[in-house]
Write a structure and sequence with these properties.
It is built from 18 helices and 22 strands. The chain is of the alpha/beta class. The protein has a seven-stranded mixed β-sheet. The chain has a five-stranded parallel β-sheet with strand order 7-6-5-8-9, with helices on both faces.
């Protein structure tokens, strides 16, 4: 249902889709085929001089961020890197009335430009972001606490993949039907009734993206690009501790929009003063018609309840289960779980928390292993993976905030249950003030549901003794259905067990991984192939990315008029 570009759109804007047409076509094919594809290499070596990116990041520190937009009434900031570095960057604070008026004034021309032009502009924004992946990686690292390797991949190319995926889905939905159709109804001996009908893609209005601390770009880009591609201006409200990556993104977007002949105010940054609570203020504004949010369950629930004027997309907390029944690759299973528990200090919405196995043990490589043996061996696998401090720092990153540290210390104290693996402090080789901690593993019984039915975000895992594999699968289903989960996993050599786990996953509405022992981990998802979350359990009300994620960001408005009878 693509509009023809309006006469007011510049030739530069019209040329952008031609420049990126192959990328869009490949993306459209990828969301249908669900195979592996990416236009953005994940290796840092593909992006030229890494030092330039580091220097560009350093140039922001201790200064006002170079961003001009309407309604700036003051400059605010306060980010401190989890690695112990004060960033000292300040950002424009908005007079919301002024900013929103400017953004609303920018909407008509963007709406009338049509799906083709909007897609081309979005693809150019992503291309420019991709070229600055090193710079953004340093910003992600020093706001989220991710290690550099992960910050580069997840904060750079993988986030860009998710943004492109959202553009592809948006384009597919907007062009599902023709922009115009001739309607002709036979009338017997009378001349047929003839009409021309036009179908207009109409955006809902202002969109609000509320950023998260841990994955500011990966979680922020889908909503940003889905809304922008469907014609909606987007205000980006970053987490106070993770502003810089999204500020760079907004600046790039504004530059591309202006070069393409549109108002840069189609994308704007809204940074809050300390303690202001700007997200609530913005979320309740009548102009805001779309909200994308990643973060705590409490605020996600508040948005869903109170922001009634908007379509609200939330990704909240979850309790991710693993059922262990049997395996024919015991060491591979242990290594895979150890890495999944350790990556980014467990500060991922996809990290396993509840590892469920029968109290009388499992079958591993044809031999019985008791519950305590599995606990001991998993603890040893994690300790071995993180035994070298430099290697550990590259996997763990840094603890992102005091809330994670406090939860870790509570679990490590034995308050929640018997500690199977104690957490230890890691001395970071480059950042002595970084808070780097290894995971803690706690042993629980199936009766301890007051502990494991709540989310313990961070490097905390529970080994839970169940009466049987059947009970473990039932518990997996019930906790996901009641408490929410983004991921689930099962290990078994018994096809009946695998089938039962898949049925439980379908009933509960969670993505399932089976027998992961190689270089794929349950807490990783791949754009164009894996759906991140489902929207079918309490952890999230939407999936990244599918048709439902984009289709309600616009409406179709038709007009019709009679055509003269032929002849």
């Amino acid at each position: 249902m693509s509009h023809v570009s309006s006469v007011n759109s510049s030739s530069a804007a019209s040329e952008l889709l031609a420049r990126h047409r192959e990328t869009l076509d490949r993306a459209l094919a990828a969301i249908r085929d669900r195979g592996y594809w990416t236009p953005y290499p994940e290796s840092p070596k593909a992006y030229g001089d890494a030092q330039q990116g580091k220097d560009a990041f350093a140039a922001y520190l201790g200064k006002p961020f170079p961003l001009e937009q309407p309604g700036t009434d003051s400059w605010v900031g306060g980010e401190r890197s989890p690695y112990g570095v004060s960033l000292g960057v300040t950002y424009p604070h908005p007079d919301v009335d002024v900013l929103f008026r400017a953004m609303q004034a920018a909407l008509p021309a963007w709406r009338d430009a049509g799906a083709d032009v909007r897609a081309g502009v979005c693809l150019e924004i992503l291309h420019r972001i991709n070229q600055r992946s090193h710079e953004i990686a340093w910003a992600v690292m020093h706001t989220s606490g991710q290690a550099f390797g992960m910050a580069f991949q997840a904060g750079g190319p993988h986030a860009q993949d998710r943004g492109l995926e959202a553009v592809a889905y948006a384009y597919a939905e907007m062009t599902r039907h023709p922009a115009a159709a001739t309607w002709e109804k036979p009338q017997g001996k009378k001349p047929p009734l003839r009409m021309i009908k036009r179908f207009h893609v109409v955006p809902r209005g202002l969109a609000l993206v509320i950023g998260c601390n841990t994955f500011p770009t990966w979680n922020g880009y889908p909503g940003l690009f889905a809304s922008l591609a469907t014609g909606n201006p987007v205000v980006v409200k970053p987490h106070p501790n993770a502003t810089l990556p999204l500020a760079i993104t907004v600046r790039i977007a504004r530059e591309v929009l202006a070069e393409a002949g549109f108002s840069p105010d189609l994308v704007a940054l809204a940074v809050e003063a300390p303690g202001e609570g700007l997200a609530k203020t913005l979320a309740l504004r009548p102009e805001v018609r779309i909200i994308d949010y990643t973060g705590s369950t409490a605020f996600g629930d508040w948005l869903e309840e109170h922001a009634r004027q908007a379509v609200v997309f939330t990704e909240k907390a979850g309790v991710n289960p693993v059922v262990v029944d049997s395996t024919d690759d015991y060491q591979g299973m242990l290594a895979n779980l150890a890495f999944s528990l350790s990556l980014y200090s467990g500060q991922m919405c996809t990290t396993p928390q509840n590892i469920l196995l029968p109290r009388d043990g499992i079958t591993a490589n044809g031999e019985r292993r008791s519950f305590d043996e599995v606990a001991r061996d998993l603890a040893a696998a994690v300790a071995g993976l993180l035994g070298d401090d430099a290697r550990a720092a590259a996997i763990l990153g840094a603890i992102v905030n005091d809330g994670v540290r406090e939860r870790l210390e509570r679990a490590a104290s034995g308050e929640l249950g018997e500690v199977v693996l104690a957490s230890r402090r890691i001395q970071h080789p480059e950042y002595p003030d970084a808070e780097v901690r290894t995971p803690v593993i706690v042993k629980l019984d199936v009766a301890d549901e007051d502990v494991y039915r709540g989310e313990h975000f961070g490097p905390i895992a529970f080994l839970i003794a169940t009466d049987s594999t059947e009970q473990a699968i039932g518990l997996f289903r019930d906790t996901v259905r009641d408490c929410g989960a983004i991921t689930a996993s099962v290990y078994s050599t018994d096809e009946k067990v695998l089938q039962a786990a898949e049925e439980a996953a379908v009933e509960a509405g969670v993505a399932l991984s089976c027998n992961l022992t190689q270089g794929v981990y349950v807490n990783q998802s791949t754009a164009f192939s894996d759906f991140h979350a489902t929207g079918a359990n309490p952890a999230a009300n939407a999936a990244l990315t599918d048709g439902a994620f984009v289709a309600s960001r616009f409406r179709v408005v038709q007009s019709r008029r009679h055509l003269p009878a032929e002849g």
